[in-house]
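#lab-general

N.A. 3:47 PM
ok so I finally got the sequence cleaned up, no stray characters, all 164 residues accounted for. can someone with queue access submit it? mine expired

B.Y. 3:52 PM
send it over

N.A. 3:53 PM
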Amino acid sequence: MRQYIGNRIGLAIVGGTLAALGAYVWLRGHDRLFDLPPNTKILPPHVSRALAAEPWPLWAVALALLLLSLTALRWLLICLGWGRRAVRDGTGTAMLFVGLKGVEGLGRAGVRVGEDGLRINVTCPSTADVGAVVSKLDQDIVGRIRREVRDDEAPAVVRLHVRR
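B.Y. 4:20 PM
back already:
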């Protein structure tokens, strides 16, 4: 899960900032801030006069903040793994690792099972013999995983990623 730490830090910063601004605006609107009198101006006088004359910039700011919050929510849901089409299968992943045990430096491998079939992901270094990996996957491993996890007719998508 180390790959998502940047996303989580970004979400924490954006979410914390939005929550602090929302709390400040709510407290300010209900006159619950102890340091400021209720008639204190936050904006400079020329800006407050311009906003009083034309209210559409406030609606534009509200729309921009709404879009920002929806984008942050989508980002959070993707980081949490919601919306993925398949679930991890430990048996298939174990079979994949056993079948590829001769590959040096195999980074990650995983099998997901969904309604539309199997999704097999393999990450290997650039020094690995990619042809041997592909032939092992094509001849033997994918068929065994299909038979064990689903049936022989289940479609399978294999993604092979070679690291630099």
